[in-house]
Amino acid sequence: MISSEKYEKFWRWCFVFFWMGLIFYLSSVPNLRISENQWDLVLRKIAHFMEFFILAFAWFRALVVTIKNVPFKTILAWSCFVSLVYAFLDEYHQFFVPTRHFSLIDVMIDGCGAFACGGIVWKKEKKSGLR
After folding, report:
1. Nearest Cα residue to 90 out of 114, 113, 111, 107
2. Within a domain: 34
């Protein structure tokens, strides 16, 4: 029988890789648009931010149940860093997709999403006094 801790760890890692796969898939779609009106650019940038906000949170949740005896801030920093690296790799991948391109602006927006997540988790953890 699988313990509840192993079960939880398994599903948290499944979500990390599912989310990374979804980001990769969306980056593979040529001419991806959210809407056909003037708000498309704004909505796509918000989507970039949110994708990597969620990715950083998913990494944090998976790492926190996997890695023991490592400080909270180290796990949080690695979650944000790995998300930022994936943002860069995602943009590099788009370089090879027709009608898509590599954008450092998008990497910065993705990084802002990841580090915003880190800031919120840090503040919540600090407030709860668990550190």
Report:
1. 107
2. no
